Amino acid sequence: MTQNWPLWEVFVRSRRGLSHTHAGSLHAPDAEMALRNARDLYTRRSEGVSIWVVPSAEVTASSPDERDPFFAPAADKPYRHPTFYDIPEGVSHL
Amino acid sequence: MVAVTPESGQDSGLGADLGAQLAAAFDAAVAADERVEPRDWMPEEYRASLVRQMAQHAHSEIIGMQPEANWITRAPSLRRKAILMAKVQDEAGHGLYLYSAAETLGTSRDELLDKLHSGRQKYSSIFNYPTLTWADVGAIGWLVDGAAITNQVPLCRCSYGPYARAMVRICKEESFHQRQGFELLLALSKGTPEQHAMAQDAVDRWWWPSLMMFGPPDDESAHSAQSMAWRIKRHSNDELRQRFVDIAVPQAETLGLTLPDPDLKWNEERGHYDFGPIDWAEFWDVLKGNGPCNEQRLSQRRRAHEEGAWVREAAAAYARKHAAAPAAAARNEEARV
Amino acid sequence: MTATDTPTVNAALALGDDALILSHRLGEWAGHAPELEEEVALANIALDLLGQARFLLSMAGDEDEMAFLREERSFRNLQLVEQPNGDFAHTIARQLYFSLYQHELHTDLAAGDGPFAGLAAKAVKETAYHRDHAVQWTLRLGDGTEESRRRMRAALDALWKFTGEMFQPVEGLDGIDWAVLEGRWLTALTGVLEQAGLAVPEGPRTGAWAAGAGRQGLHTEPFGRMLAEMQHLHRSHPGASW
């Protein structure tokens, strides 16, 4: 099946000042067409100012299986999360 | 959403203890409304059930392009033509989102399309009905998309993450579809007597098939109970059907159109509209392939795929020849806004 | 914004009909494209063109009257854009010829201060994308497989005779040097085809029936059937609103 086009992951910057966010995936024969297809599919309602495409096969994930304890240590460091801190009422913009 | 075949644990020689532990952890996570992600362990039946449902949903989007595309070249005003083109384009887009979501479970789009083309996977039976007049475009938007939205909004909270995320995107776009259908019918209903009759005729033909879109009654639905336990589904077929009827009746009044059901009336006690019996024989018959357009829809789909083969092959061949550029480098482009 | 002077109306119809008719042809692809991603791409181009058409036809009068109530002989579009879709290679060849032309024309119009400068300034971004789409596919079909190269070559040859018409001066489009425009078009086209390993077709680009004929309301046979389909519903309900 040589006609199968590989899968690409699409990342869209929705507006300036924000980082690229994973929007979804699509099939394309090569990077150039993947970019164009991504523009048509994921920004046809003006949802983006910039697009990245990455071959899905090139993505290395943190663990082959998320039941792995890889993420467990994070739970030990609640201070990394903003909800760890009690803020008096009435303080805004924090 | 990375389409890597996950190393699911259930058949890979895990000890019975670990298997049971995983199943218990999975059930607990789902019960706590956590999202399941592609690489998580999941019961094989959960995976199969999801692939079946997402595939059927994706197939419905792309087969569903046909009855409406049937009117793009005949749309009676340029405004309507633009709206209809954009809508049919959205359906292609929705198909793409859903195939992508299904691919996260390790089933490729080609495999899914192959199953569609060979009749091993279904699409929504509603698209086996023909669009005979322009008003059918409106009836599809108002009733068929309306029923679809009623079905789909709860799917935005489906337990499987990629499916839920695809549905969030789709639901946002679908509301435009339903509104344009309603507006189209309203214009016809308030138009000339011929236009009004066209609108009424379309609603007469699409009302009952739309009610069938929610699937068989709860006590006859094969997958319902398990899907609800897994939070793939959130409400029963009958519940959603009732919700749709309750929404549609007042809308029909606004439209100045009659719903073709003499038994339709408000039930004070239940707080819902009662409606007449659905012809389930017709439903099963269309599902089995005896609807007015089953063959036509599938053969057009197959033909487009076959006639496109040389194009897909050419692009793949070109990519192989020009693969010198570093494929892994992410390309960046300022999109046109 | 309806224009009253005849040359501007004439030019609005010429450009508007080009966009309308090509948009219609591209709309016929819905549900038939070679891949789902391409369904979305073709529809985007069709929608851009339809947007341009609506703006331009409104300069000449009511957009729907212009689209649905004129007879075949009143349409001013190029014969190129009315040609049937054929296979995907024919559609891409038509897109390539036309989008290279439209992009060059819009660039010139946007640089001027005539009645089409505003539209052209917006449309030039769209046509840049249409051109890019056509170029990318021309490269892939020309330099893909034996079959795709053969089909692309046949399509380029078949449509070649309709390309001369694009450079017949259009009344109402002032400040365009048509000979220079044609030179730029040919240079751009030659560059793309060379990169794709395809030869520029030979043979005449104009003939008794193709030199400015569409602009004068002389069309090819498939156009009448296309219009019959496009106009039928609107015409069946005179005076109705939709």
UniProtKB/TrEMBL annotation, chain B:
Pfam families per record: PaaA_PaaC (PF05138)
Top-level taxon in the UniProt lineage: Bacteria
Sequence intervals crossing the membrane: none
NCBIfam families found in the cross-reference section: PA_CoA_Oxy1
PANTHER family: 1,2-PHENYLACETYL-COA EPOXIDASE, SUBUNIT A, PHENYLACETIC ACID DEGRADATION PROTEIN PAA
Stated name of the protein: 1,2-phenylacetyl-CoA epoxidase subunit PaaA
Organism name: Streptomyces toxytricini
Lineage: Bacteria, Bacillati, Actinomycetota, Actinomycetes, Kitasatosporales
